[in-house]
Write a structure and sequence with these properties.
Chain lengths: 658, 299
């Protein structure tokens, strides 16, 4: 069967409707014409009958005047009659209501009125009727010819034609609009929606009016649902490892390529952790492949548990796994993940009453420094993993040696800090603060030291920044507060009872919600004025308002506040104005450069400003007598430095005081 | 929203077409009234009875009562009526002028209903030098009058014929100075008798004179409205039976059509006709010989 467009179909329907409507209106017209015809016939018949009766009466009486008047009146009053001719039996004209034209009319053929029903009233121009009169028993016959006003009758018909033509056009127009609207609403629009749905398969149209279209919509919906499920299933099969359920190699490559594109745009980094189980072959050989598979499943599950939601864990093949860590800001996080993997795997796996310890060698690459494409990154990670294996297995190794060294050291220090806090390897050393005028020790700064049993003394610049990077500074800071306050308590009953101990507080500690609470609880039973908090400008750089609130709380506790290393940062006077510092400590670098006049002027200016602000001023890093003399000259209050003493243990400090 | 199936749409289209066709058929089949024109003759009482009972209306027949059968014929001849009642005289006249007239039912035979009245007896008339004869020339009166004059050997040359319809004729009063003969029929005779005229002869005592009344119609009506014509016959048969069985009740219904005659006159009038709605073959063959077409007559 030939197909038909909706447009063509609509045109066919319109043609059929046009023809049907045309037929309907034509039948209306014919009916109307028939009614007019009936009325005209009735009118003509009535007129003729009246004329016949009148003539019958008056012809017998020869009342010619009356006859003429009557015929003229009848002709004039009737719209349908144009003229009336009265003729004798031999068709001789006796009287005409239209004398001027009767001759012409006489050529018109008249039919008998009894035949009127069988003729077309709109074409017939004349009707005749015979009138018989009697004189005694003798009959006299006359004929009356009635001429029809054809113009008037035709105008009635043309009026009807006009009327029905207008009705036809109006009705047809309305019908077409209606048909168009119905077709559009019920068929065209739903079909377009179905087409879009079939093409894009996204926005499913609402329930449709036409049942067949509704069935199509419903079927499409079911089909798309099924297809989606099948698609999902296929996608899963093509992107997942069937054993572990992790992303497979293909999916991993896709993800890495995507991250490379993203990294190029946003300059972000990501890490690839290549993990190979050490001696996994032994598991398969000794406990069978089934057990080996179970081990792989458990490891997969462990890996998924370790990483974040947006990290990718993939089974690369056999006993090789790859973990991708997107958006890394520093390598510490990578290191942590690698460390967590190592630790988690160190827990023996228990399955079917067997316990088996698994270790893994891990190679790490970081995009973009260790490769610009997925293949290179994976290859280099593989190489790094082999390096880890060479170094004795159960270890991780970065592809870049320098980075590997730095990070390994970082991890080592981190480990030392954790051990140090647990095993009391941290110690506080105290450096005296000396009143320049009197030469007496008025206070001291508590400085943290890590003394590892193997490595010996680890200076703060080696571990503080690492502790700050992973928030380990918070427990360390707590320990410092606790230790310093404990020392205050110890000294409270000695000659050192008036000494004030300063401690350094990191910006991270300032943001710790429990900082004030901890400080408050540690200060119980201690004179708070004996504790001084030293801040550097860098602490105040970020989240200023938040930190200002903490400073106010510190002051409220009765502690004093010192601005450390003044002159090295912005040395913003607004800090001095807005923050209630008690002491300003001039940075050691000014003392080191005291030979220059410029440096001297700066120190003198700082001392002068601080004095004007009624704050105490402390010069740090004083190592020579000249430096001390100069400070005395410019009326500096206090100095701190090796000229008096290096930072020493509490016991040694006590001796200094003596 | 409930979806509409193709089936429902099909049903809807069929319904719309049915309504359209029904409307079309209604347009085409609007029935026209059939007009039947008659006069006040006692023999046409069944028509009046059926009209009063509403039977004619049910059949779509409109009844017109004219002053005379001559007028009724005129109305029929110009096409204002589709059926007409009349005697064989009107039938033959209309057959000659219109060509389109066919008897389809016989109603009655005059049995004294048509008559000759006069203010003189036969002898006085014979002796009169001048006699005025009133009649409807173009009616069966003419045949009756001629039959009478011939029967009683009254010379034609002393007769002055005056053509008038019966309504005018019934205004005449008997004047002893003016010999008058009137050809009339029931019920107009009743008033004339009261005006001093007496019956000299009638169809009761003139066995050679047959006056039958019937109904005539155009061929188109007999063919296209055959059912109505058959129904009309049944209705009129019933009406005749009703008039026969219960003349008093019938009288109350139709007296208005009969010049408001009394019940007694009504009963007398009925005696002056014989119902021939179920005509014997003998009568039909007699009529046939007269030139009466029997093709469409319903017996």
């Amino acid at each position: 069967m030939k197909t038909l467009s909706i447009k063509l179909f609509t045109i066919f329907v319109m043609i059929i409707l046009f023809m049907s409507e045309g037929t309907m209106f034509y039948s209306f017209y014919l009916k109307s014409k028939e009614n007019i015809s009936d009325l005209l016939i009735d009118s003509i018949e009535t007129n003729i009958l009246n004329i016949k009766f009148f003539l019958k009466d008056h012809l017998e009486k020869n009342n010619i005047d009356n006859i003429a008047t009557y015929l003229n009146t009848s002709s004039a009053l009737s719209k349908t009659i144009l003229a009336i001719n009265l003729l004798d039996n031999s068709n001789k004209l006796l009287y005409s209501t239209d004398k001027s034209r009767y001759k012409k009319k006489s050529t018109v053929k008249c039919i008998r009125i009894s035949e009127i029903q069988n003729k077309d009233i709109f074409k017939q121009k004349c009707y005749s009727v015979s009138v018989g009169t009697y004189s005694g028993l003798k009959r006299y016959s006359y004929n009356v010819n009635i001429y029809i006003n054809h113009v008037y009758i035709s105008s009635l018909l043309s009026d009807q034609i006009k009327k029905y033509s207008i009705y036809f056009i109006l009705f047809f127009t309305v019908l077409m609009f209606l048909l168009w609207y119905i077709l559009r609403y019920t068929i065209v629009s739903p079909l377009e929606k179905l087409r879009q749905f079939a093409y894009y398969s996204t926005k499913m149209p609402g329930k449709l009016l036409i049942r067949e279209l509704e069935s199509i919509r419903y079927s499409l919906d079911l089909t798309f649902d099924r297809m989606k499920k099948e698609q999902d299933e296929l996608y899963k099969l093509s992107t997942q490892d069937s054993l572990s359920g992790l992303a497979n190699r293909l999916s991993l490559l896709e993800k890495i390529n995507w991250l490379i594109s993203k990294g190029d745009r946003s300059k972000s980094e990501f890490a690839i952790i290549f993990l190979d189980l050490d001696n996994f072959k032994n598991i398969n050989d000794s406990l069978g492949h089934e057990f080996g598979d179970e081990v792989l499943k458990i490891i997969s599950s462990e890996l998924l548990d370790i990483v974040r939601e947006n990290d990718v864990v993939s089974r690369f093949g056999g006993d090789e796994f790859v973990v991708v860590l997107p958006d890394i800001e520093d390598e510490t996080r990578v290191l942590n993940v690698a460390q967590r993997i190592k630790e988690r795997l160190s827990v023996p796996i228990e399955h079917e009453h067997y316990k088996y310890s698994v270790t893994a060698s891990i190679g790490i690459t970081i995009y973009p420094r260790d490769g610009k494409d997925a293949t290179t990154l994976l290859k280099n990670a593989d190489m790094a993993m082999y390096r880890a294996k060479e170094l004795g297995k159960n270890n991780y190794h970065f592809f870049t040696e320098e980075l590997n060294r730095i990070l390994q050291e970082k991890m080592h220090i981190q480990k030392m800090m954790e051990d140090g806090l647990e095993k009391h390897h941290f110690k506080l050393f105290y450096q005296p603060k000396v009143d320049i005028k009197t030469g007496k020790i008025t206070g001291c700064e508590a400085l943290i030291r890590l003394i590892d049993p193997k490595e010996g003394l680890i200076p703060p610049d080696k571990f503080i920044h690492i502790a700050e990077a992973n928030n380990f500074i918070i427990p360390i800071g707590k320990w410092v507060i606790k230790e310093a306050i404990s020392q205050i308590k110890i000294w409270s009953n000695t000659k050192l009872k008036d000494l004030k101990i300063s401690i350094n507080v990191s910006g991270i500690q300032f943001l710790d919600p429990s900082f004030i609470k901890d400080l408050e609880s540690e200060l119980l039973g201690v004179d708070p004025s004996k504790l001084d908090i030293e801040l550097t400008e860098s602490v105040l750089m970020s989240k200023y308002d938040e930190k200002l609130e903490t400073i106010k709380k510190i002051k409220k506790l009765g502690l004093s506040l010192s601005l450390d290393d003044f002159g090295t940062g912005y040395s913003s006077l607004s800090y001095l104005k807005n923050i209630p510092f008690d002491t300003i400590k001039i940075d050691k670098s000014f003392m080191d450069d005291l030979e220059s006049k410029k440096s001297k002027r700066f120190i003198a200016m700082i001392v002068s400003i601080v004095k004007d602000l009624n704050l105490e001023v402390v010069a740090e890093g004083v190592e020579t007598k000249d430096q001390l003399e100069y400070l005395r000259k410019i009326n500096c209050d206090v100095y701190q430095g090796y000229f008096c003493s290096k930072p020493v243990k509490a016991q040694e400090f006590e001796k200094l005081f003596v | 929203m409930y979806p509409i199936s193709g089936g429902t749409m099909k049903k809807f289209i069929i319904l719309a077409l049915t309504v359209f066709l029904f409307y079309g058929c209604t347009l085409d089949n609007k029935h026209k009234n059939i007009t039947l024109v008659t006069n006040s003759w006692i023999g046409y009482s069944p028509l009046f009875y059926a009209n009063e009972k509403g039977d004619l209306k049910k059949l779509g027949i409109k009844l017109i009562v004219s002053g005379s059968l001559g007028e009724a014929s005129d109305i029929y001849s110009v096409g204002k009526a589709d059926m007409v009642s009349g005697t064989q005289h009107e039938y033959f006249w209309l057959k000659e002028t219109t060509k389109d007239i066919y008897p389809f039912m016989l109603l009655d035979k005059s049995y004294g209903g048509d008559m000759i009245l006069s203010n003189k007896n036969i002898r006085e008339l014979k002796n009169s030098k001048k006699i005025y004869a009133y009649l409807e020339v173009n009616s069966v009166n003419n045949e009756i009058l001629h039959y009478f004059l011939k029967k009683f050997s009254i010379k034609m040359n002393k007769i002055t014929f005056i053509n008038k319809n019966q309504i005018k004729i019934q205004e005449l009063r008997a004047n002893p100075q003016k010999p008058v003969i009137i050809a009339t029929y029931n019920p107009y005779d009743i008033v004339l008798k009261k005006h001093g005229f007496k019956v000299l002869a009638s169809t009761r005592d003139s066995s050679g004179l047959v006056v039958v009344d019937g109904l005539f119609a155009k061929i188109k009506i007999l063919k296209s409205d055959k059912k109505i014509v058959l129904e009309l016959k049944k209705v009129l048969d019933s009406s005749i039976d009703a008039i026969r069985k219960n003349p008093k009740k019938s009288y109350k219904l139709i007296s208005g059509y009969l010049e408001n005659i009394s019940y007694k006159d009504f009963l007398n009038s009925l005696k002056k006709i014989k119902w021939i709605n179920k005509p014997p073959k003998k009568l039909l063959s007699k009529l046939k010989k007269m030139g009466y077409s029997e093709r469409y007559i319903i017996r």
